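thread: overnight batch results

M.L. [08:02]
morning all. the overnight job finished for the chain we discussed friday. pasting input first so we're all looking at the same thing
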Amino acid sequence: MEEIIFFLILLGIGYSFGILAEKKHYKDIKSREQETLSLAIASFGAKQPLPNASEAKLFVGAVVISSDYFKTFVMALRNILGGRVVAYESLLDRGRREALLRVKEQAIAWGATEVLNIRYETSTIGGNNQKGIAAIEVIAYGTAIR
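M.L. [08:03]
and the structure it wrote out:
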């Protein structure tokens, strides 16, 4: 019985601190997105002409975000029951937005006028052993021009 109570306490702590950390991160992301709105992002196909530029540089933004105990517990249940994992959707959303913001902030500091062809790569870290907390790595990259 004590083990179940201890587990539920850990689950509650994981849920509480996870929600607080996520809200704080979203608040920071939204604030920084407002600051970087002036930098345009465009995608071009392989056969389309690129805009004129005097210089171009590749920028990479990488972020690793881990889940809390509550989300890990929910994921374990979803592995049994199947279905959509809503608890992890915010994890991916935060990772992609943060990685893109890092690219944009570096490009703005360089003096870029536009960032072209943003691409994302995502990988899982430590989530394959079914024992540890899952974390994701998101890498965003694009070519900035000025």
